[in-house]
Amino acid sequence: xxxxxxxxxxxxxxxxxxxxxxxxxxxxxxxxxxxxxxxxxxxxxxxxxxxxxxxxxxxxxxxxxxxxxxxxxxxxxxxxxxxxxxxxxxxxxxxxxxxxxxxxxxxxxxxxxxxxxxxxxxxxxxxxxxxxxxxxxxxxxxxxxxxxxxxxxxxxxxxxxxxxxxxxxxxxxxxxxxxxxxxxxxxxxxxxxxxxxxxxxxxxxxxxxxxxxxxxxxxxxxxxxxxxxxxxxxxxxxxxxxxxxxxxxxxxxxxxxxxxxxxxxxxxxxxxxxxxxxxxxxxxxxxxxxxxxxxxxxxxxxxxxxxxxxxxxxxxxxxxxxxxxxxxxxxxxxxxxxxxxxxxxxxxxxxxxxxxxxxxxxxxx
Length: 365
Description:
The protein is of the alpha/beta class. It has 3 domains: 6-130 and 172-194, 3-Layer(aba) Sandwich (Rossmann fold); 225-278, SH3 type barrels (Roll), CATH 2.30.30.280; 284-364, Elongation Factor Tu (Ef-tu), domain 3, CATH 2.40.30.10. Helices cover 25% and strands 30% of the residues. The protein has 10 helices and 17 strands. It has helices at 15-26, 56-69, 79-82, 85-95, 102-121, 163-167, 178-187, 191-194, 210-217, 221-225; strands at 6-10, 30-37, 72-77, 126-128, 133-138, 141-146, 169-170, 229-231, 237-240, 264-269, 274-278, 284-295, 305-310, 318-325, 328-338, 345-350, 353-364. The protein has a 6-stranded antiparallel β-barrel. Helix 4 packs antiparallel against helix 5 (102-121). It is globular and about 70 Å long.
């Protein structure tokens, strides 16, 4: 019997989740490792070798640590639970002219649910991950706070976790920097692991070619959308593009045309297969609507609530005023914000604390 209880640790085979498991084991928890198989890369039709959290090498790396440290390790196939939910949302969002964040969706609706289900089956009170974030509590409500290492902070991708998930979650790496985590792995004798690189790819698009993935996933997509118009902000046709799903708000490179000066994607109009281009200033937005909101720190927020709103991962955020609109939140920026992309996550911060977040529904000037 452990002195601190049982904790199910999500182990991808990478350095962060491995150190998480080792830390908790050293602290006296009864650790059970779990590696989740979410996706078969062969099904994506990509051209590169399978890498990342679902590869055989990663699974073996996770199992080796568990054997070395003397705790149980299980591999769970959650491909059916992952299913087509995250994939179809990813495709549907691009077809709708939006830019999705599948990792946020997977965390919120798939991985945490799968971990809690397995934790219950294995009689584990807690679940733990290698995310860089700090958990806090105020007036009985759990919320996450930015990690000490600002370069590695992952509080942005955790906004969708509800109170039940947070009440059982542990994020041991939040108080540490990445170099400190690497040193821990080295000190434990895992010298190669301490130098292991990181993957920032989407698990089901490990070659990082989302355009190719969309073409393979949707029959005839390229033929259906090829040859649409680039227009300027005045609505004048200035060229032809390869299809609106293959562009994202704020994109500058890869437009396939030279304009004599930098041009950016400022709007996507799927109904007419039109991509609007403008100069950098045309990306500025004064506000936006956020839907599918999840509040963390407070059960509700009053109209006029001031927060720093981040509109993308690693965004410093901008001071903004929030107002309730039924099941949506209206965000008014108090500073210029560029590249607000519908489909991405908006996360509201009070200092370093995550107040909540949601999905960007639309923006306005």
